Amino acid sequence: MNASSAVLADYTARLEALALELGMDFYPVNFDLVPDNFMVEIAVYGLPVRMQHWSFGVRYIHQLVRQHMGHSKIFEVMFPGDPCHAFMLEQNSLAENTLVTAHVLGHADFAKNNQLFARFMAMAGSHILEQSAARAHRLQRALEAHGQARVEAVLDAALALETHIDINQPLHRPRYPEFVAPRARPAVSHFHDRFARLPGEHVEPASNDAPQRAPLPPQPESDLLWFIAQYAPDMDDWERDIFLAVREEAYYFHPIHACQIMNEGWASYWHARLLREATFLPHDLYVSAIKSHSDVVRPFASGQQLALSLNPYHLGFSLWEHIIDKHGLERARQICREEDDFGFVRNYLDQELADQLDLFVYEARQDGDTKIASRDIHQIREAILAPKFNYGAPCIAAGQVGADGALALHHDYLRDGRGLDLPQAEKVMDYVGRVWRRPVTLHTVDFRGIVRVLPARKL
């Protein structure tokens, strides 16, 4: 351990003690310093060890390009759990990693106390790194047994559908009942019973004891990863295992997606407060750390420019400060426990704060011009939340499996409020067709609202 690492370890222990004094309640955190290339791999794969797939390589190249252009710097990657795992850059300055340490403690506090995190962690487990490594090991065995082409075809389909889960269903759920439950015979009144006993009036009830097979699915099923894993007619067990593994990781990541604004804002509020009250930090380090804080929580645009994209750190930090100023820290803690980003933004982003942050809804016209479309608070809230709806995926459900095994998928475009990107949808349909191995169709509309039926092409 070099001198800088030893100083950081000391600051970490003292920041943890200060956090407890201030009433924070967090999972223990394992901190690791890692080189830049490893940090990029963690960021693009989503986990330090994960199932290998070509799409992660594409993301890796994209991230490198962004970094070289100065558009993206990864300070840390943190994985909620018990314990949490945080990875920090070796190349960060001591001030930056001190800031990151305080920020991570805020994340650990949020993960332990937020009900959505608690619910999904109870289902998906609290040791994501070890679980992910075990899944990667099973995939490696599948690669050795079945070859890269077959395994990659299954992963193509599973990862294309990774956000198509039903968050209202448990992770571990049983298959549908195979047969329709028999109808209970209606109760016979005393009068009808006496009438039936009269000579010549008794009639034997029609026998209908043969069980009736239930339709598949019994109702539209939006958990496509689960449905395909359970009911694809010709899938092998190892292929079903891959689908269920991707689904399990999607359950782990859902609270991170659904609470991003809250979570990043909460962590930013606490890192600012911890640094402010950490009297043991040297003055020059504190100034450098606070400068990094200002860079993190500001809008993407600077000066008098308008930002057309939303910085969740900036919005979340501003919202928590607004709530604490108006309602106090205990009320903020209650909100932290009970809400996700939908309730957080809809209930606590008011017109006063929206005006203060200069938030607006904009539209890009066909001639290339961009103009402000609205500053109405309701439209601002829904524009912020639109990318989060349904885990960011279009509302598509398995509607019917025919006698020949043909699968019909239906896009609920009225609920979505938009059509699909048809070239992308066609590609996903091809992936699904490879694993379903029977005819597959998707009923949807294009961007003009014209009804389209997309078949999975045979490859």
Automatic annotation (TrEMBL):
InterPro entries xrefs: Spore_V_R (IPR007390), SpoVR_N (IPR056174)
Source taxon at top rank: Bacteria
Pfam families associated with the record: SpoVR
Residue ranges occupied by any SpoVR protein-like N-terminal domain in the UniProt entry: 7-385
Descriptive protein name: Stage V sporulation protein R
Organism: Massilia mucilaginosa
